[in-house]
Amino acid sequence: MLLGVIADDLTGATDVALMLAREGMRVVQTVGVPASAEALPDADAVVVSMKSRTNPAAEAVEWSLAACDALIGAGAKQILFKYCSTFDSTDDGNIGPVAEALMKRLGARFTVACPAFPANGRSVFQGHLFVGAVLLSDSPMKDHPLTPMRDSNLVRVLARQTKLPVGLVPFATVEKGPAAVRAAFEDIAKDGPAMAVADAVTDAQLRVLGEAFDGLPLLTGGSGIALGLPENFRRAGLLGPKSASRAFQAPKGKTAVLAGSCSAATRGQVADAVSKGVPAFALDPVAIAEKRMTAASVLDWALPKLGDMPVLVYSTAEPEAVREVQERFGRDASGAMIEHLLGEVAQGLAAAGVTRLVVAGGETSGAVVGALGVSMLEIGPEIDPGVPWTLAADGKRIALALKSGNFGTPDFFTKALKMLG
Ligand code: ADP
Q1: I want to staple 17 with a disulfide (CB 3.0 to 4.6 A). Which of 47, 83, 363, 400 is the partner?
Q2: Which domains does the chain have, with CATH numbers?
Q3: What helix, strand, coil percent values describe the chain, rounded to 5?
Q4: Does this model's pTM top 0.90?
């Protein structure tokens, strides 16, 4: 193994796995922390996906360290801690605490934080994160149900999450090339362990950063940060040339879409599918809390409709409706309640012959894959930037498109299913 990746959610893990596969690495994604190094598959890069983004920081740290130990035990030469390209976190963590703990475990004096992902409109300039043309704090992320992001200055955001000093490698330095970036890293850590946010607005800059990352024990960032890493291993003679990707064969069967994301992109995708006549069932959080709506009642609606068309089950709602539900039942409890129900619905759909399932939402995908008991994923073709089809690689007969809430074009659901033929 060359690269070990620890991802704080499932769709983020798939996103970075796709990036590495496209750059010519053999990649396998595991679901959950492996019991030991021996439990890991043979691959150039192994992406361990957790569901730790919104857990208590201590738990996220414990799981990340266990994943790190397994990856290093299996031979990983470098560790990448992958989080969302919108830096999803709170002042309690989990990006800062996990990065700090991994630095200590790996004996790293320095690490970098860079969520830039230009292909998906995430760019970092002077330490400020932009989503498309607007600052993070003006983007729909300000209303995220679990990790509302209301400060765009990542140096400030990260500094609230760690005791280590947080510096900045600005755009102008990145433009000067890998040697200048490496000199900046050394300067930032000259008085002791430190972290730095790195600017990147283009893929070319991510490749410059990638080259500068050669030999660093630990990196942290979005999937864009992985863009230039395979080339370092190739230059060192450890990785062969890029070759054509393997054929991807999704098992034949019925299709369904589960949406538990309330992100702006998902709201548009749900509306698009509904307007196209996809049979759709809107979950009602109040009815779920009062047990008037259960997985059984949702399946009663869905199962007779399974056929040539997909069915769509969604809890996707506007920010105002989400706020009302959260005020009534609590933020985490409402999230967990809906995730649990969608997990049960996924089980029922799979048992009824659904073998092609699209899931919208990072946390939601974690819950669904957990409920299905899928433990390993093979990465397939890209549907939209950051979202590939995946295939259960543990004997289960199911193809899964796991979409981070804010990713994908409006027609994502129908397009993804059409792609499989
Ligand atoms: P994203 O990828 O868009 O962040 P996630 O699935 O990660 O989506 O997170 C969305 C969270 O919001 C989940 O915990 C989900 O259960 C919760 N949620 C979904 N719909 C609603 C709703 N109508 N009201 C309150 N919370 C909701």
Answers
A1: 47
A2: 3-235 (3.40.50.10840), 254-419 (3.40.980.20)
A3: 40, 20, 35
A4: no
